[in-house]
Design goal:
InterPro entries: MAP65_Ase1_PRC1
Coiled coil: 96-130, 215-242
Organism: Camelus dromedarius (Dromedary)
Largest sheet: 2 strands, antiparallel
Number of strands: 2
Region (Disordered): 446-487, 516-556
CATH class of the domain at 282-460: Mainly Alpha
CATH topology of the domain at 282-460: Methane Monooxygenase Hydroxylase, Chain G, domain 1
Biased composition (Basic and acidic residues): 446-459
Structural class: mainly alpha
Distance between the termini: 155 Å
Strand content: under 5%
Number of helices: 20
Low-confidence stretches: 472-579, 589-606
Radius of gyration: 62 Å
Mean pLDDT: 75
Length: 606
């Protein structure tokens, strides 16, 4: 049983006790029955009125609750529609009082969400308006009368964030461009003369409209100023080049040049004016020193002629170069010619540098060719011979490649310009072919001279005998290994057998004329080459050191090539002028080398 029901039962008991107590009082007092009835009616009416009043109040409460529920439900539905959320659904059965409380709580929550969304929307609209005014962009399209959904608010927030990033990037670009514009204006001594330039340079940065149009105008202004600055720099560099040229032509001393050294850097307007004044002063000085200036220009002209590989006919074509009437007109002609040549060289600089590279390589190649025909190069002790041979071999490979590369580039140039590219008055490939032909003829001439010289020397030795040679300082002969000795002696034996004019006598020694002397190998006579101007390294080496040939020539008589007595006594291989002298030398050699000769003779006979 509920406590309320218990209380109701207790109320009835209390009422019954009260009525019984009233009846007892009325009995004691002696109130008659009719009055008791009246008094009971009054008690009944009083109790009934009280209960009716209480019931009416509770009924009124119920009606209020029902009405509140209805109102809350309507408002809640409206808020759910505005906030784009699902309608509120009460879970399970509940009392009127609980339902009213739940609905009222939900309505308060929805009202709070609506209020927060409206506040955020207002804040985003204010930020959007501020950013759009700075960026000169249209405002974000959103309905300010309705409550935005969460998705709409998210999109609006993202839009505002994008505007902030755009503002930051444009502001950074604006600040950078503004700084460059100010620097250019300072270099040009330029003051802002338009409203836009004043807005950029003089006004506050935050007040500048960062629209795309303004940014584009800023970039255009910067390009114009940079172009003017570049033009100013080019003019200043031209003036400086003109000043240096005039300094060189007028032979201005270094002290006077240092006085204007501060003008040789920078490109501001005041620097440009000062440079122009210096040029005017030097030009006036040039007119006063006409002859010296023209002679300086002629020196420069000659340098450009050399760099452009001008022939003598091309140089003589410029007649003013040889004139001696030093006038202003002559100076102008020289100035025009030097400008033309300078431009011509700069346009075709790569070709001329390629030809110059070929010329240098060709001169180096000729130098190596000259050294290759010099026997004295074998006496060097620093490994230079090996280095020279490597460089010479490398040049022999690179020269044809360089010629082919230049040939292709020159052919392309000739097709573009419809004229021939000449070097020293002739086409480059003809010039190259001529150089090779001259080199071949020179080698042939040198070869013929050597052959003629050798022929005359041989004829002289055959008629008068060879003159004794003073032994030159040379490297000591390395001792031969036993294998080499055996091989050398075997070769000597075969040669001795093949040559019928050689017969072993006492100590196996026979002296012969140098005309029929064999080389140190003892296998073949030395022949003078007539088919080529080159010598094998072996033949060159023996030709470069004839003393070794004279010493080693004793192998024909059966001696060891590295024996000490032979190296000491065999300078007598030259033919003696008289028989008595020959016999005397033979006797000396026989006494000192008897033992060695007997051993060698034994080796040959075995």
């Amino acid at each position: 049983m509920r406590r309320s029901e218990v209380l109701a039962e207790e109320s009835i008991v209390c009422l019954q006790k009260a009525l019984n107590h009233l009846r007892e009082i009325w009995e004691l007092i002696g109130i008659p029955e009719d009055q008791r009835l009246q008094r009971t009616e009054v008690v009944k009416k009083h109790i009934k009125d009280l209960l009716d009043m209480m019931i009416a109040e509770e009924e009124s409460l119920k009606e209020r609750l029902i009405k509140s529920i209805s109102i809350c439900q309507k408002e809640l539905n409206t808020l759910c529609n505005e906030l784009h959320v699902e309608p509120f659904q009460e879970e399970g059965e509940t009392t009127i009082l609980q339902l009213e409380k739940d609905l009222r709580t939900q309505v308060e929550l929805m009202r709070k969400q609506k209020r927060e969304r409206k506040q955020e929307l207002k804040l985003l609209q204010e930020q959007d308006q501020e950013l759009c005014e700075i960026l000169c962009m249209p405002h974000y399209d959103v309905d300010s009368t309705s409550v935005p959904s969460l998705e709409e608010l998210s999109q609006f927030r993202q839009h505002v964030a994008t505007l902030r990033e755009t503002k930051a990037s444009r502001r950074e670009e604006f600040v950078n461009i503004k700084r460059q514009i100010i620097l250019c204006m300072e270099d040009l001594d330029h003051t802002p003369d338009t409203s836009f330039e004043r807005d950029v340079v003089c006004e506050d940065e935050d007040a500048f409209c960062l629209s795309l149009e303004n940014i584009a105008t800023l970039q255009k202004l910067l390009r114009q100023l940079e172009m003017r600055k570049s033009q100013n720099e080019a003019v200043c560099e031209g003036l400086r080049a003109q000043i240096r040229e005039l300094w060189d032509r007028l032979q201005i001393p270094a002290e006077e040049r240092e006085a204007v050294a501060t003008l040789m850097t920078g490109s501001k307007a005041k620097v440009r004016k000062a440079l122009q004044l210096e040029v005017d002063r030097l030009e006036e000085l040039k007119m006063q020193n006409m002859k010296k200036v023209i002679e300086a220009i002629r020196v420069e002209l000659a340098q450009y002629w050399d760099q452009c590989f001008y022939s003598q006919e091309q140089r003589q074509a410029f007649a003013p170069y040889y004139a001696e009437d030093y006038t202003e007109n002559l100076l102008q002609l020289h100035d025009a010619e030097i400008v033309r040549l300078r431009n011509y060289y700069e346009v075709h600089k790569e070709l001329f540098e390629g030809v110059q590279k070929w010329e240098e390589s060709w001169r180096l190649f000729l130098e190596f060719e000259r050294k290759a025909s010099d026997p004295s190069r074998f006496t060097n002790r620093g490994g230079n011979l090996l280095k020279e041979e490597k460089q010479r071999a490398k040049l022999q490979k690179t020269l044809p490649k360089l010629e082919e590369e230049l040939k292709a580039r020159i052919e392309m140039w000739e097709q573009e310009h419809s004229k021939a590219f000449v070097v020293n008055g002739q086409k480059f490939m003809e010039y190259v072919t001529e150089q090779w032909e001259m080199h071949r003829l020179e080698k042939e001439r040198a070869k013929q001279e050597r052959q003629l010289k050798n022929k005359k020397q041989t004829e002289t030795e055959m008629l008068y005998g060879s003159a004794p040679r003073t032994p030159s300082k040379r490297r000591g002969l390395a001792p031969s290994t036993p294998g080499k000795v055996r091989k050398l002696n075997t070769t000597t034996m075969s040669n001795a057998t093949a040559n019928s004019s050689i017969r072993p006598v006492f100590a196996g020694t026979v002296y012969r004329s140098p005309v029929s002397r064999l080389p140190p190998s003892g296998s073949k006579p030395v022949l003078t080459s007539t088919c080529s101007g080159k010598k094998t390294p072996h033949s060159i080496k023996h030709g470069a050191n004839k003393e070794n040939q004279e010493l080693n020539g004793s192998i024909l008589s059966g001696g060891y090539p590295d024996s000490a007595p032979l190296r000491r006594n065999f300078s007598i291989n030259s033919v003696a002028s008289t028989y008595s002298e020959f016999a005397r030398e033979l006797s000396k050699a026989s006494k000192s080398d008897a033992t060695s000769r007997i051993l060698n003779s034994t080796n040959i006979q075995s």
